[in-house]
TrEMBL record, chain B:
It holds the Pfam family Med18. Component of the Mediator complex. InterPro entries: Mediator_Med18. Belongs to the Mediator complex subunit 18 family. GO terms for molecular function: transcription coregulator activity. GO terms for biological process: positive regulation of transcription initiation by RNA polymerase II. It comes from Amborella trichopoda. This is Mediator of RNA polymerase II transcription subunit 18. The gene is MED18. The keyword Transcription regulation applies. The lineage of its organism: Eukaryota, Viridiplantae, Streptophyta, Embryophyta, Tracheophyta.
Length: 518, 217
């Protein structure tokens, strides 16, 4: 076909430059273009006639539309179209495109799309290209022109073949596109391979298991400036942020650290329930430190919430105080210890002032209940455990408080008090709490109250204890059971359990779920 | 459950891999920056310690948290024959107090890492996610700005797809057939296995990066 066309074109050129190009006669005959054209025109006329006839009728008289007639006419039109398409299809698959589906959308654009006549710009482009190509040959006789064109085509074909061969060879050489291991690839030298393997092991171990990523315990303190997303994640969430972030960083978190600190911060941030109940003849320490800008006391919102809780807890506490007499005193004291000890490493300065505030409110009620309970030896034994475990100062203020307490403790003699002094020197306030009740176990209430300074730790302890008391009595019973386990971690667990109970009164699932575990 | 394979690629070839993945997946690449905190449970939560990962997506201005538990892998002779690891996974979006919550439960921070890179998420028989990341560790706790890569010259490629117990065979087939397309550049295998580098990677990367690759034929 292509050569025929070329010949046709050559002929046309030979005949006259001005004459429009004609297809080969034989081809023309085959295509029967004239016939197809006539048929198409006929069909077009028929359709337009039908439209003319039927349109006004359908518009004027909707009822008088005779569907049968219309359908009959339509079938004729359809038949004609079918014949035309058959004719065209036979011969002109290579030349003609006929649309499969004509509908309202594309009917207008189809003639443009089907036309093979080039757009004017394209046409001019093509003629100019043709000019270029044939210019050199135009003066020669036609046969020579044809030969030259043929040779050009052959050269181009040869170049293409060579190029594709080169690509295939290169592909083979590099193994692309083939799934077998190519034999020509140079092997990686062993040293490099070993290095790569080592790197790979390192990477995969780090990602999958975490090897090489663990920070030794002594470096595991929170940085002073946390990235933004962690500030959100680790903050207490109640609008209380630490006044001195360095205080946090000086804590040695160790194994419990982050967990307890965060939990305690949480606790401190939210533990509004300050049990208040009972009478007290103890004077409040006026030196309750109030200049904590972020403490809940200065805010108004927090204060509104606790009051109903306080009242209810007062009643609860009264009852619990009676309940928690001698038989349960051990458990309480141990819970105190637990609270203290777990609280101390995590005490951030914001927590402490909060507790101070609470204590100021509720000192009176606490003191009685706490000091009325004697300590057991078990707690004395636990103390060295605690002091060994917790080795950091929480802050200088606390140390000074400890010193104040020491002076008060001068009244008490005995091994308990000496142990107390030693502990007070080395440890934080919270540790002193267990020591104090131990020292005063045999004493009456009055001298204890004179201990005065409402040692903030003692207040803290009271509050904590009552907070524990505010939880289910079932939990207390469980904690009693857990005394046997000893150890620090179970204590922590109890604290956390209590904390969870405290903070999420709605999440009653927690205590229930944990109980079976224990 | 998920089907997962891992592979390594040298940092110099990452761009070529991206071009290949772009072509195979047909979706635009998405940036990937995740701070992963791996928490281990304390003894109060059972005799055997369990591990939970908290992923904080730092890509958007508001970080979003996900909790993820990776369970045991499928075992047995059938699993041995598979080239893809099938393991149980549980994942869920959580609010930002998840970290505090887990600490309160008794979990402790075991290790953390920062993954920075890009990922492609597309559907090809199964919903496949391909992530190419540089894994970084933080010498100081939580300080992301000072993260340094664990292996500077090498990045991790992970191809994963979620599956259920019923359809994991098809998902495995989908993942492995997709991995074959990546064969010129890297070799992917189960996370525990070492793969090494592919010998054709340099040539394949060169061909992908050459100008000819960008032209429409």
């Amino acid at each position: 076909m292509a050569t025929e066309n070329v010949q046709g074109q050559a002929q046309a050129q030979a005949q006259a430059q001005v004459q429009a190009e004609k297809l080969n006669q034989a081809l023309q005959h085959q295509l029967n273009l004239e016939g197809v054209r006539t048929r198409a025109l006929d069909l077009f006329n028929t359709i337009s006639r039908l439209l003319e006839i039927f349109d006004p009728i359908s518009r004027a008289n909707p009822n008088l539309r005779k569907w049968q007639d219309i359908l009959g006419q339509f079938s004729m039109v359809n038949l004609e179209l079918f014949h035309i398409v058959e004719e065209v299809k036979k011969v002109s698959k290579a030349f003609v495109v006929h649309p499969k589906n004509v509908n309202a959308e594309n009917s207008t654009i189809l003639p443009v799309m089907l036309s093979s006549k080039l757009l004017p710009e394209m046409e001019s482009e093509e003629t100019s290209m043709k000019e270029k190509l044939l210019h050199s040959l135009s003066h020669l006789p036609v046969s020579t022109q044809i030969e030259r064109l043929k040779s050009r085509i052959d050269m181009i074909a040869a170049a293409c073949d060579g190029a594709s061969k080169a690509i295939a060879d290169a592909r083979k050489a590099y193994g692309l596109g083939s799934r077998q291991v190519p034999s020509m690839v140079p092997p990686i030298d062993k040293v490099q391979a070993a290095k790569i393997q080592e790197q790979e092991k390192l990477l995969k171990a780090a990602v999958n298991v975490g090897d090489g990523l663990r920070i030794p315990g002594d470096q595991k303190h929170l940085p002073s400036v946390l990235p933004a997303h962690l500030v959100d994640a680790l903050s207490s969430g109640d609008g209380v942020h630490p006044k001195n972030p360095q205080a946090i960083s000086t804590n040695n978190i160790g194994t419990q650290g982050t967990a307890i600190q965060n939990s305690y911060t949480q606790f401190g941030g939210r533990s509004v329930p300050s049990p208040s109940g009972g009478t007290s003849s103890i004077d409040n320490t006026s030196a309750s430190p109030l200049p904590y800008a972020n403490s809940p006391r200065s805010g108004t919102g927090m204060m509104n919430v606790p009051s109903p809780q306080q009242q209810s807890q007062q009643q609860q506490q009264h009852q619990r105080q009676k309940l928690m007499q001698l038989p349960q005193h051990q458990q309480q004291l141990i819970s105190q210890q637990q609270l203290r000890q777990s609280a101390s490493p995590g005490l951030s300065q914001n927590a402490v002032p909060q507790l101070h505030d609470f204590q100021v409110q509720n000192q009176q009620k606490f003191q009685q209940a706490q000091f009325s309970q004697p300590q057991s030896h078990q707690q004395l034994q636990n103390r060295p455990l605690q002091s060994a475990h917790i080795q950091h100062n929480i802050g200088q203020s606390q140390m000074s408080q400890a010193n104040q307490l020491r002076s008060h403790l001068g009244q008490y003699t005995g091994t308990a008090s000496t142990a107390l002094f030693n502990a007070a020197q080395a440890s934080t306030n919270s540790q002193m709490m267990p020591n104090m009740p131990a020292a005063i176990s045999s004493q009456s209430i009055l001298p204890r109250m004179q201990l005065g300074q409402r040692s903030h730790p003692s207040q803290m302890l009271n509050e904590q204890m009552f907070n524990m008391g505010a939880t289910n009595s079932a939990n207390m019973a469980q904690m009693q059971q857990q005394q046997q386990f000893g150890g620090v971690l179970t204590n922590t667990q109890n604290l956390q359990q209590g904390l969870v109970n405290l903070q999420n009164p709605q999440n009653s699932n927690y205590p229930q779920q944990r109980q079976p575990q224990q | 459950m998920e089907c997962v394979v891992q592979g390594i690629i040298e940092a110099q070839h990452v761009e070529a891999l991206e071009i290949l993945l772009q072509g195979l997946s047909g979706v635009p690449r998405e940036h990937f920056k995740i701070h992963e905190l791996c928490l281990k449970s304390g003894p109060n939560l059972g005799a055997v310690s369990s591990e939970v990962r908290l992923l904080c997506n730092l890509e958007r201005p508001e970080p979003s948290w996900t909790v993820r538990h990776i369970g045991g892998a499928m075992r047995g002779p059938g699993a041995e024959q598979l080239s893809v690891l099938v393991r149980t996974t549980t994942e869920s979006k959580v609010s930002k107090n998840a970290l505090r919550f887990f600490y309160a439960l008794g979990y402790k921070l075991d290790h953390e890492l920062l993954k920075v890179g890009f990922m492609f998420h597309f559907h090809r028989v199964a919903l496949i996610t391909v992530t190419v990341t540089s894994t970084n560790k933080m010498p100081k706790l939580h300080v992301i700005e000072e993260a340094i890569p664990v292996t500077p010259g090498m990045q991790l490629v992970e191809v994963s797809a979620p599956a259920t117990a019923d359809n994991y065979n098809e998902v495995v087939a989908a993942v492995s057939s997709f991995c074959e397309y990546l064969a010129p550049l890297l070799h992917l295998s189960k996370p525990g296995h070492l793969t090494g580098l592919v010998p054709t990677v340099a040539a394949a990367a060169a061909s992908l990066m050459s100008k000819g690759s960008g032209q429409v034929l």
